[in-house]
Amino acid sequence: MTELATMDFHPQPQAGEAKPWAFPAPERGTLDNGLTVLRCHRPGQQVVAVEVLLDAPLEAEPAGLDGVATIMARAFSEGTDKHSAEEFAAELERCGATLDAHADHPGVRLSLEVPASRLAKGLGLIADALRAPAFADSEVERLVRNRLDEIPHELANPSRRAAKELSKQLFPASSRMSRPRQGTEETVAGIDSATVRAFYEQHVRPATATAVVVGDLTGVDLDALLGDTLGSWTGSAGRPRPIPAVVADDTGRVVIVDRPGAVQTQLLLGRIGPDRHDRVWPAQVLGTYCLGGTLTSRLDRVLREEKGYTYGVRAFGQVLRSAPDGTGAAMLAISGSVDTPNTGPALDDLWTVLRTLAAEGLTDAERDVAVQNLVGVAPLKYETAAAVASTLADQVEQHLPDHYQADLYRQLAATGTVEATAAVVNAFPVDRLVTVLVGDAAQIKAPVEALGIGEVTVVTAE
């Protein structure tokens, strides 16, 4: 009889002791030109992330030129006094860097990612873009044409069309928030290199800007690098800009954007609520996550798992704008899509979920799962330098202290079920939601009216 051979296995690895984690705190400083700098050393992150925030909010755009901030942001990478657009792109590629820019209500943001070994070159390129952008006629004209080409595609997208209508419904026509962030066909068509440069010269200066640098800075003389690059950018001191209050009308009502023949209805329910300066924010984040933050949330459990109306429904809070005095506003919304015949039943069930939540509250189990998902995975969420830099930049834009994110996770972990319930019920009151439906009005208007959730108005899709 053959004797079986035995094998010695390596001992199974055992989990080590969990290490405490907190969102990293940056160091603050100021360059001679007035530029505020936040730096955060992250050992092992060999791709350095740089965020530059410019105090050029959408509300500062001249009348009739909505979208000029977006065109300016895109034009920063289209040539400088040293490089043409093609040469600038080649220089970025040569040092393995990427440069993106976008405009939003708080201002314009440039995002650079570059290997730590090429940080000096990357900082030099973004500094040139800010210091002396070319804004060549041909490049701005091309960017305007590209933007005009994008608009019809956005209007054809049900979720984008719903978002546009919700902003129009919530905010007064005089408010910049009521209009598309990147402009309309009429306003973008009037933008040229002269209007872009005028906006740049009026609003872009180092004294009102902030740079965030995150990554492995071992052996890097960051002060010297910043001095030689972003420190060469000059400009006037500038004055603090008054930030108007956010005004909105969240009277409960329904607006149907008619899309004849649509086989699905895009749902977007929203209102304006407190932003991150409000003490209720942690509880609101937790409660909103329980309502519609993941596949195990209440809305998904009913509308997706039990009824099969949708592939998913999400509830969220998105900060719109904050002021230094702690005032501001966030968009509180519920979004998803359902098949056309079940639009009425799906909305009925959605309202039932909200009413049940108000009557019975969240469960401890729901609260515990939300805390695990929000707090427990935070170290993974911030593994990259870009994620840390983006969050630090958000804090700057929203006039929050540097330790805000670390405090938020501690507050989330300490928030109880009763607090989370009260916050989410106040965030989504059943009689104070503006409901936008993008779908076939002929099929969905009557069932929606029968629900009694507000006056129903039909508008024509562009």
From TrEMBL:
Residues covered by region (Disordered): 1-20
Boundaries of every Peptidase M16 C-terminal domain copy: 193-374
Coiled-coil segments on the chain, per record: none
Domain named Peptidase M16 N-terminal: residues: 38-169
InterPro entries per UniProt: Metalloenz_LuxS/M16, MPP/UQCRC_Complex, Pept_M16_N, Peptidase_M16_C
Protein name: Pitrilysin family protein
Species, as recorded: Streptomyces griseoloalbus
